Amino acid sequence: MLTNQLPRVTIAHLPTPLEPLPRLSQLLGGPELWLKRDDQTGLAGGGNKTRKLEFLAAAALAVNADTLITGGAPQSNHCRQTAAAAAKLGLRCVLVLAGQPAEATGNILLNHLLGAELVWAGNAARDDAMQVAVERQQALGYRPYLIPYGGSSPAGAAAYAAAVEELAGQMQALNLPPFDRLVFASSSGGTHAGLAVGARALNLPTQVLGISIDKPLVVLTGETVAGLATDTAALLGLELAFAAGDIAANADYLGGGYGIMAEPEAEAIGLFAQTEGVLLDPVYTGRAAAALIDLIRKGDIGRSERVLFWHTGGLPALFAPQYSRQLAEW
Hints:
Number of helices: 11
Helix content: 40-55%
Order of helices and strands: EHEHEHEHEHEHEHEHEHHEH
CATH class of the largest domain: Alpha Beta
Oligomer: single chain
């Protein structure tokens, strides 16, 4: 396996299911849609960050850390899963959340239940506030380990190179030919980079298409994903290099910005729910699914293609009031 040489803890339910979406495919008039269920990784509501945390938490334990520190938006799925990983492994957890204190709903409520200490960054820059949290924990006598935003480091991204191997094994077991495209939400870049590395390492003839959630195309492909993919390949001992042109991405669906749900995301959430009984989240998978649906309707994704949508999780955010009110009216 690609990641055999890396330290790893076992906290995810793997492999996650691979299943067809026949009713949604029929509704959209093709292509043949499939779903990879990383919303079912099993850790406190699941999600893609659990795969990354198997490697990131192992790295923390290897240096005898007793506290995990990370940061994100108030409804961050990454923060919720980091808090759960810390609880499962007997570690403390400090989460640095953007902005001012908010109501304990959705992921914020789960962070409390999981025992994390919440630090609100206020007007401070995210990375600065995270570094301050590290220094404070050190001053208190703890041994903190800083996990970057989104878990997007080479070790975290390596989890998604391994996920491509998992997918290839499932496809072989089901006698499935390669998918034409693999579509998913991309933001901090770790999942995107890992999938790109895994697909190239296994020579899969599949476009790895990340839908940008919050970044312009040039920032996502060049400044975020390409360099991380190259560093991830190096960590795995692979002689692979990536430039911006090697990264497939679409940044046409940024809408009102990060975390702003509008009609396209609400429609996508409703269609997945009402045709397949699958729940998406309002920030990541909802936006990526809205892009997928629009690309099909416009003909940019052909009717005869076979497309895999990689569900990266995020269900708890549906219950945050700023989203639940909108969805109740959809």
